[in-house]
Amino acid sequence: MTQQLACTYAALLLADSGKTDAASILAVAKAAKVEVSSGMASAFAALLKDVKIDEILKNVSFGGGAAAPAGAAAPAAGAAPAKAAAAAAPEPEEEDDDFGMGGLF
After folding, report:
1. Is this model's pTM higher than 0.90 or not?
2. Residue 66 CA, distance from chain mean position
3. Which residue intervals of the chain are DSSP H helices?
4. From CA 30, how far away is CA 33, in angstroms rounded?
5. How would you write the pLDDT of the chain (105 residues) with one tens digit per residue?
6. Which of 7, 10, 36, 92 could bond 28 through an S-S bridge, CB–CB 3.0 to 4.6 Å?
7. CATH 1.10.8 is the classification of domain 3-56
């Protein structure tokens, strides 16, 4: 585990307590048996003075995926004509992607 990752995890663990000073970050890293330099912990602590992790975590959104396009509604009673129209449309042929290499690849 890198020092940066250890400090990030320590910051996440310490976010609720509000104690994101260098000594606390070093204590968490030591408890996890990860060696973190005091300079790295101090840099993270200085950064965390301006950043409130709990506010960032409250605003995280994972989203439910992309919305379906308007034409892709759930099939209803008139689904048969839609299938017939889709079957009537010819599929485009795939282009040869060998870029004129004569089938070498």
Report:
1. no
2. 15
3. 3-14, 22-31, 38-50, 53-58, 79-88
4. 5
5. 788 899 989 988 888 888 889 999 999 999 999 999 999 999 989 988 887 877 777 777 776 666 666 655 565 555 565 555 556 666 666 555 555 555 555
6. 10
7. no
